[in-house]
Structures are given as C-alpha cells and as structure tokens.
Design brief:
α3 runs antiparallel to α4, α7 crosses α8 and α11 runs parallel beside α12. The chain contains 16 helices and 19 strands. By secondary structure, it is α/β, with parallel strands linked by helices.
Length: 453
C-alpha cells in the first residue's frame, strides 16, 4: 500500500493553496520553521529530521489516486487539481544540519518558494522536526547523564507506532546511543543491534538456571542474562554458575541485566559476587523505566553499571513530549522583484521578519559564547549555521552518512558550556538580535499597527 505522503497535510494547506492559485499565482514567500520557546526543562535542542525532509521534497508529486481523492471531496477546482498534477518543489531550502545545536526563535529551516509550494510543505516539515528534534534532544541528555557509559535504545514497544519506533532509533543513535534493540532500524540505518532476554523466557523453563544454560548454549559469545525474574541475588548466583561453565569451555559470559529493584545496591552486590567468582569481565546492564534523572543518580552513587537500556522515557520524551515548533511567514513578494518583510504581532506570538541567518560565536577553545540572529547578508564575525540544502528545486547538499551525523552531534555537544548541560537547572543561552534585525522589527511593527487603523 502506497503512503501517498503528498497528501500528508492539513486540509487548510490545500484550501489556502487553491486561493493562492487563483489570486496570487506568482507570489513568492519565505517561511521560517523554529521553536518559539524551549520546554521548561530544556536548555538546548539538537536538530534531527533533515534527511527525511530532503527525501520528501525531492520526491514530492501528486499521483492519480491522490488527485482522485481530492476530486471526490468536491472542494477544489479542476484547474487547481490540474496544477497539482504537475506540482514540483522548485524553491530553495536552507536548514541547520542534523546534529546541530539550536535555541529558541532560531530558524531550523528556511523555505523560499512560490507561496503555494511553501505552504504545502508545512504539515510534513512541522511533524518531522517536532518528533525527531524532540527525541534526539532527549537522547542527548541521557547520553550526557551516562557520563561515557553506553546507552541502548529499548523503546520499540513503547513508541507511538511503527514509524515512530524506527525514527526514534535513528534519533537516539544521533544523540549518542550506542545501539538499538530494533532490528528493522538496524537493517535500515546500520545501527548496532543488541538484545538480552525477557522475563517470559526465564519463566517458560522449569528453573531459572535451566533457562540461563539453554540461552548460553545457543549464544555462548553474547549471552546477557536477566537476573531479576524471581530473587535477584539468587539470579546473580545462577548467572555466575553459567559464567563459570562458559569459562571452562573457553567462552566469556557477556553480562547480566538488572531490570528492577534498588539498582544501585543490587549493582554493587552483583559486582562483588561476580568479582569473587573470577568473573570480573562480566558487564552489568541496567534497564527498567530509566531516564536521565535516574541515570544521573545512579552514576553519582558510583554504582558499577557498565551500560543502560532506556526505552519508554526516551522513546516518548516523557517529560517533554512535544516542542512549540511553528512555521511562519517572514517575507513575501507580490511581483517577483521586491520582497516585503512581514511578521506576526499576536500577543506572546510575535515573530521576526525578513530572511534571516544565525551566527555562532565561540571562544578560543571552541565553546559556545552566544548566537546572533541577524538578517541574511549581514557581515557578522562568527560561524553561519544555516546551510543551503535545495536551490531552485535541486538538492545541492551532500547529506552525510548517519555515523558522520552522530559524530558531528557529539562534537557539538562537547562544546556546549557545562551550565547549559544541566538536566535540572534552567539556564538560558544568549541569543542576541542584530541591530539591523531589531531596527527592521521595530519599524515594521509600527507600520503594521498603522495598517489596522
């Protein structure tokens, strides 16, 4: 069954497009996609979703079933439907690369196109950036909390549908996770896949010990045994017995998994028992409703845990399950020559006008000092962040491999000053408005107010 992503949009995007088609067919527009306010417990965001957006825009066209469906609605003229038959995006796209760090009111995407083309992208762009930027930002916080310990994505069973589960695995990997339990994601994106066993597996055998032996016989080089189905201390002892048998055969028990109870004290007890048995190489993996807050406590307590499996709270970004992401008109041209800046004046929803760029200012070591939001073309001493992705409908950006995106993300994360990495304390990063943008905003606001008199 075909997805028909070309009609993955809100109806008002199509109804507005019909009006544009009749009354403003040659109108050019610039739209900015940005997050108006960061969630209350976020000091930064990490960007994800651009790869999917490039693919969507490059292949966007309205096929016959989609046109027939729209015709059945009896809302649209045949002239407009015929226009959609030949629809292609012929505009420009500027964007922050995946793995880039951004803050409130900074454009993540800038679309420059015929107003119909720009409008019809709205739903997909917002949906994609909202989910993937939200998840990769959550994953990066968990990565930071783990302090160099590996973290694995266990979220497949708790995400909202198949599509989300696949995207979450990819975003988690960009955000620093070492692998995923999601086999399809591993296949699609070449992400390392990991797995242990379920409590049901242990319970399906007459004894816990027999389940451990059965598993280790099938997978002698990669057995991680779940030790808390019944009594955790006894489970650890059974794992030790299996580990010693594997050792006699020339294999090594890879690890044990703690999924419940007082993880800190159990991990310390497990480490003592394993070391006394001569199994100091056996790793301890913790899972079970973990997030950055719990992981931070575990790490601070110096629990001897080597890695974490994180599912629900990462895969749904449970403490902040959405972003205040918006797509707003910032510039328009009625005659294809002169562009007129525009802005929204609604209370608490004011936007900045014009075509904009972001410059990042760093210290000598590379750490972020501040960002400057300015008009495109201004000469600012710093690094411009928005990159040209699509020019006149053609992709000119060389999309990096996923591993490269992950490396870029981790490098960016390392240059965020420590105070902005706090997972509990709210610290606002300075985003400065250039004098030219400030002046334009002030003058345009006065002009727009006069229009309502």
């Amino acid at each position: 069954m075909k997805d028909n992503l070309e009609i993955f949009l809100d109806l008002y995007e199509l109804t507005m497009a019909e009006v544009y088609f009749k009354y403003k067919p040659n109108t050019l527009a610039t739209f900015d996609l940005f997050v108006r306010q960061l969630p209350f417990n976020r000091n930064y965001l990490m960007v994800a979703g651009l790869s999917e957006i490039i693919d969507f825009i490059s292949n966007l066209k309205f096929d016959k079933p989609a046109i027939e469906y729209l015709r059945e609605k009896k809302l649209f003229s045949e002239e407009f439907l015929n226009y959609l038959k030949g629809f292609r995006f012929r505009g420009n796209l500027w964007a922050l690369p995946e793995g880039e760090i951004c803050f409130a009111n900074e454009p993540i995407l800038r679309v420059e196109a015929n107003v119909i083309e720009a409008q019809l992208l709205e739903g997909f762009l917002l949906n994609t950036i909202n989910l993937q930027t939200m998840i990769v930002s959550k994953a990066s916080r968990i990565t930071l909390a783990a302090k160099g310990r590996d973290v694995y994505d266990f979220s497949l069973r708790r995400t909202q549908g198949k599509d989300a589960a696949i995207k979450v695995s990819r975003c988690a990997y960009i955000g620093g996770f070492a692998g995923t339990s999601n086999v399809l994601s591993g296949f699609l994106y070449h992400i390392p896949v990991v797995g242990t066993m379920a409590h049901s597996f242990v319970m399906s055998f007459d004894t816990e010990l027999s389940s451990f032996f059965a598993y280790s016989e099938c997978f002698p080089e990669r057995s991680i045994l779940l030790v808390d189905t019944y009594n955790t201390e006894r489970g650890i002892q059974n794992a030790i017995e299996v580990g010693l048998k594997l050792k006699e055969k020339g294999f090594k028990l890879l690890g044990i998994r703690l999924d419940s109870g007082d993880i800190i004290s159990l991990a310390k007890k497990a480490r003592q028992m394993l070391d006394r048995a001569g199994l100091n190489y056996v790793k301890i993996l913790a899972s079970g409703n973990l997030d950055e807050y719990k992981i931070e406590r575990i790490v601070k307590a110096r629990a001897p845990i080597d890695s974490f499996g994180v599912g629900t709270h990462m895969g749904t970004s449970s403490d902040s399950p959405y972003l205040d992401v918006i797509y707003k008109l910032s510039q328009i041209s009625y005659d294809r020559k002169k562009f007129l800046p525009t802005m929204k004046l609604s209370q608490r929803k004011v936007t900045y006008p014009g075509r904009k760029q972001i410059y990042r200012i760093r210290d000598r070591r590379g750490f972020f000092i501040k960002d400057i939001l300015c008009l495109d073309g201004e000469k600012i001493k710093g690094t411009p962040l928005l990159k040209e992705i699509i020019r006149n409908g053609k992709v000119i950006y060389s999309n990096p491999a996923l591993k490269e995106i992950r490396e870029y993300a981790m490098k960016n994360l390392s240059f965020i000053p420590a105070e902005y990495k706090s997972i509990k304390k709210k610290v606002v990063y300075p985003v400065v408005i250039s004098r030219n943008l400030e002046k334009l905003t002030k003058n345009l606001k006065r002009d727009l107010m006069d229009r309502q008199k």
